[in-house]
Amino acid sequence: MDVLSLAQIALLASAGLIAGAVNAIAGGGTLFTFSALIATGLPPITANATSSVAITPGNITGALAYHREIRHHGQRFIGLILVSLAGGFLGAALVLLVDNQQFRALVPWFLGFATLLFSLGPRIQAWTRKIRARGESEPSARPNRLWGRLFQFCVATYGGFFGAGMGIVMLAGLAITEGEDHHILTALKNLLAMVIQLVAMVMFVAGGLVSWPHCLAITVAAMLGGWLGGSVARKLPAKIVRQFVIAVGAVLTVVFALG
Length: 259
Hints:
mainly alpha
């Protein structure tokens, strides 16, 4: 078992606290936890798996917060749940098939992709609203739900493999194909994210990829950060948090690309 120094515990706890808070407000916590785990000396694959497992409790509580919507509408979305299970399984399985050098080469691309998603978040939402409005006025122009299932499978595969920024793309895809109100879409997004993270967690734990001391240091702080973030969200505009995440993501992308 790894023995962490006080400095490493402080770093991981700080990353977990920030990750939990920003996830509660705007998303993007994986950028902080993954980078902190790398900074403590973990190999990239172990850092990715440990980060994924560490934030899973937050995804579970996020889904439970919408238990009423899930209970009333969950049966309708069984197809999406099944493709999310399959995609999450495939993504996590791919992690088990690559080595650290290969995964390390992909990290700057994933971080850059996630940062781009956060920067385009408002535009993606605006584009989604236009497509939904067109589908409501012209039912024949509404995207087929089969394409929605395929899109969700791709998002889930990415989520099982790395996952940063997954929620933004998932919410956009669901809004286009499902056409529900914001609360139901958010509930569904949280439910599917939980499913993806749970299947990935099982795969990573079974594969022996998780460093439990590192995971524990993050998880406890992330739970506190999520609670604090929920309180701060009422006072701090999500735009400010998003800009902070984008700035950090851009710096991390450059650091990993040059490292």
